[in-house]
Amino acid sequence: xxxxxxxxxxxxxxxxxRRAILARLSHGEASVTELAEPFAMSLPAVSKHxxxxxxxxxxxxxxxxxxRPCRLEAAPLKELAGWIETYRRFWEASFDRLDDYLREIxxxxxxxxx
Length: 114
Known about the structure:
Elements: H1 3-13, H2 16-25, H3 32-36, H4 43-55, E1 59-61, E2 70-72, H5 75-107
Antiparallel strand pairs: 1-2
């Protein structure tokens, strides 16, 4: 994942409203009006959030007659998960080494048991 795309994805996900919109879209397509329903904000404000998500590649907008459905585009999330996985493996290995070290300390040196 390129640094610019990663930055765009993380920036888009930094806002709780945008995360809630993505959560809604994970259940299927929705119109701007449907996406705006749970929020106490204007349609133009919701549209601004959608533009951020669209620029980050997290959603796309279709056109079906008068309806412009929004849909989730999960590829950037998959790429982000892969980037995060690298660090998860690092921390998991670090914790495994710490577990081993703590076990050694608790068991003590067998030469000291006389």
